[in-house]
Amino acid sequence: MDSKLFGKKLGILGGGQLGKMLLAECNKMGIYTSVLDPSPDSPCKNLANKFFCGDFKDYNTVLEFSNDCDIITFEIEHVNVEALEFLEKNGKKVYPKSKTLKIIQDKNEQKCFFKKNNIPTADFKFFSNISDFKSDLEKDQIKFPCIWKKTKFGYDGFGVKILNSIDDVNDLPETEMIIEDLVQFEKELSVIVSRNVSGEIKSFETVEMEFNSNSNQVEFVISPAKISQKINNYAKELAVKISESLDCVGLLAVEMFLIGDKILVNEVAPRPHNSGHFSIEACKSSQFQQHIRSIFNLKPGETKHKGTSIMLNLVGEENYFGKVYYENLDKVFTYDSANLHIYGKKETRPNRKMGHITIICDKFEDAYKNAKFLKENIKVKSK
Predict the structure, then answer these.
(1) Which of 34, 42, 109, 134 has its CA 20 to 30 A from that of 144?
(2) Structural domain count of the chain
(3) Up-side HSE of residue 200: CA atoms within 13 Å toward CB?
């Protein structure tokens, strides 16, 4: 029987930190890789077998890049989906599939998909412009506070805003949007599930995310989440249902709100996810290995957890731009339980993800204490 890996060429659209960690697994397995990214300083530049500097949003660039690849995948949603559709029609393997990506790229389409498939989610309404939104406000059909989301190209907290008054509305850009009810939740959860070409599914344990209230970015990921087994099972069942309903091949990260014993699905991402970085050290098979196994139609790996892990993001400090400098980084090595990942980005800016640290301990209290200390002391600045 021919190997599903040997001799195959994998093309990856996007060359950020997710691509870099995906390449680390590919290199272990001897998979030939090509990466397309617009930045000449991409973290993937020196790790892939071939690196192409170009725009993954451009139709012709994606087609040209894909010529020499057997399988195409992506580490960011904002790629040219029409090019992926064309490639599929002409026999190229694209995972996750273009039809899956097309739904997820548009937050209105994504929310409509949830409703159609009886996936619990917050109530919402679509608006094509700000004028129509203001009209509903004037008619008292929408009340403050509420959540504004751009339908496309939001990422890492950008394109999402809590609206408390008409002043907040006046500051919004002119774009298509959805307005959601503001959900009062107890915890934000995430489940990452992998599904291969044959439909075999494996999920990681549910994790809990703590967000920075100013940047709306994940600050800590607690794994496993401090929830009941009943809620854990329900969250994983929801993630599996969504993956199957989307016919997703590869990874799917499902973000959720916990309200008592209820769960509302917030949104999904068809790729490796920040909430899954803990798995590199805390699980036998990381999320990146699971993604590769899925798109090459291999058996899913083992996802059992070792101890308690806390992942903390290292992001650019406010008011710092330019060549990056890591203040007090050596403090990581005072803890045997800490695992450092620096992404290799040369330039920092406020809230830019520059690295992460995963701490694994037997007790949650120890892991959280160490994570808080490192978060308070390590600062990402510029020279």
Answers:
(1) 109
(2) 3
(3) 14
